[in-house]
Amino acid sequence: MKVGIVGSGAMGSGIARVAAEAGEEVFLFDSNKEALQRAGMNLFEAFKAQVEKGRLPAGDADIILKRIFPVSSLKDLASCDLIIEAVVEDIGVKHQVFRELEAVVARQCILATNTSSFSIAGISSACVVKERVIGLHFFNPAPVMPLVEVIPGILTVENLSSLCIELMKKWNKIPVLAKDMPGFIVNRVARSFYGESIRILEEGIASVATVDYAMKTFGGFRMGPFELMDFIGNDINFRVTESVWTQFFYEPRFKPSVTQKRLFEAGLYGKKSGRGYYNYASGSDRPQPDTDPELGRRIADRVIVMLINEAAEALYSGLASKDDIELAMTKGVNYPKGLLHWCDELGADAVCRQLRTLHEAYGEERYRPSLLLKIMTAERKKFFS
Questions:
Q1: pTM recorded for the entire structure
Q2: Annotation marks residue 116 as catalytic
C-alpha cells in the first residue's frame, strides 16, 4: 500500500514511521521544505537511537528509512491508496488540504484525518466524495502510543471502518471504533481528569503539587493532571476543552476554567514554554505536596467518580462499546484501569452517592449522575459480570 502523510511535524512524521515500520511505502508531504528536512533528520536520529539501544538491527533501520519519501508537492501523492492529514488543528487549513487532495488523488483513495477536536462530517464537507473520509486519531508520540481511534463520519461508506481497523492492527496498533462525537472517546472522557482537578485548585482545597501527588499516590495514575497538562501543552489542552464544550452546546460537564485560559493567554504552555503550572527553568524548586492521606484520598475519589460518570455517559450515548471505552482510556492515556471496571469495583451505588453529594453541595448540573449509573444502581448491575 502507498500511504501519504500530509504534515511533517511530530505527529505526521511519527505516523510516517509507524506505516514504514509496518512495511508500507510512505510519502511524507510538507510545503515547508525546511520542516520536511528537519523531519527527515529527526527520523534518522530516532532510528539511530533504536539501533544504538539494540532494539533494531542497523540493516532493518536503513530499509525502513528508505520506505519514507519526503515530497513537497501534493501531486506526488497522486498514486497513494491512503492519505492521512496531520496538519495544524485549524478547520480552514484542513478544508483547504482536503480540497487540494481531491484534485490530485484517485476516487478510490481513502482520505483520513488525524484531528483530535473537529468532526469528521465537518472536515468531509470540503470534499465531493465524502464517503471516503474517515478519522484515524493517533496519540503522541505515534510510534510509542498503541491506541488509534477509528471514527467514521455520518457519510463514510460502511465497510471503510472495518478496513481501517484491520489496517491499524497490521500497523501493530490497537484500534477502537468511535462515533463522530465531540472529543471522540479519549478527549471527551478525559476532560474530567483536568477540569475537576483545576476546580479543586481554584477552590483552594489543594495545591497543584498536592493534587498531582494525590492522583498518583491514591489514584494510581502515572502522571498527575497538572504534570500531564504541562506535558501536553496548556495551549493544546485548553483548545480541546473549549472545542468539546462548544460542540456539546455548552454542556456544564465540559466547561473550561478561567485558570487554564489565563495560562493559555500568557503563553504559559508548560514544558515547551519553560513554565506552566510548574516552573521548568534551570534551578527552579519543585513545590512540595501536602501528603495528608485523608486529603489525598478525598481528591482522588472526587476526580475518579467524575471520570467514571463521563465514561458511563459515553457508553449510554452510544459513543463506543464498553470494551473500546476501556481500551481507549488504558491504552490512549495510560489510566491505571478501565473506568467501567473501576465503577464495578467501587459499586455504581457508591459512585452515584458521591456524585449526588457533590450535586447537592454545588447545585451544578456538572455533577449530575449519568442516567445509566442510576439505572445500574436501581437494578444492582455491573458493567462486567
A1: 0.95
A2: yes
